[in-house]
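Long-time lurker. I teach an intro course on protein structure, and each term I like to show students one example going from raw sequence to a predicted 3D structure in token notation. This year I'd like something fresh instead of my usual example. Would anyone be willing to generate the tokens for the chain below so I can use it in lecture? Attribution to the forum is fine with me.
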Amino acid sequence: MTSTDDDSAFDDPAEALRVIQREQTNVERELTPDPRLTYWPWGIAWLVGSGLLFLRYGPDGRVLVDMPDWLPLLVFSSLLIAAGVITGVVGARSGRQVTGPSSRQGTMYGFAWSAGFTGLAISFSRLSDVVPDEMQGILWGGGMAAFVGAMFMAGAAVWNDRTMFVLGAWISVVNIVGVLFGPGWHALVVSVAGGGGLLVAGFVARARLR
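-- Reply from a regular --
Happy to contribute to a lecture. Here you go:
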């Protein structure tokens, strides 16, 4: 009886270990959600939404592009809501693909995104009427950026993902710098450094996963 290629491969312990590691990598890649679905919705929301806020409510109250007062905030809030929903759904679905503690972790993390984002969105909506127009960008942009940065770092602790932790820390630092610069500048910093960083992170994470 002749041995097959698979049988001969496992005659060598080193080759057997490489086969096992390769299969583990394939399974992990199949179960790991596409990182672009985690990073890009927020990157697009901040790049477009904060960019519009900067153009309408620039530094020192300057209007760089004339547009209705309500348009930047409406676009920004809509994109943020979409990003929060997408992230929550992706986290919950990734948890359902496996069983045991990993499944519960993914599901709870997904619900944490949805619950936290919904609570912030409702709170900010109630506060928008009493907050000056020039400060609404910091209210929405600063609050959401702080939430996303913290959630990414928490997710990194759950999944032991160093890249996600670095990204969360970057977002937090960028947000703090923007808030310190004040209205107008915060929107620009979050749009370019925050939104752009998230888009780049999606490309990098996808390339590493592949």
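Some talking points for your students: Residues 43-57+66-209 form one domain. The mean pLDDT is 81.
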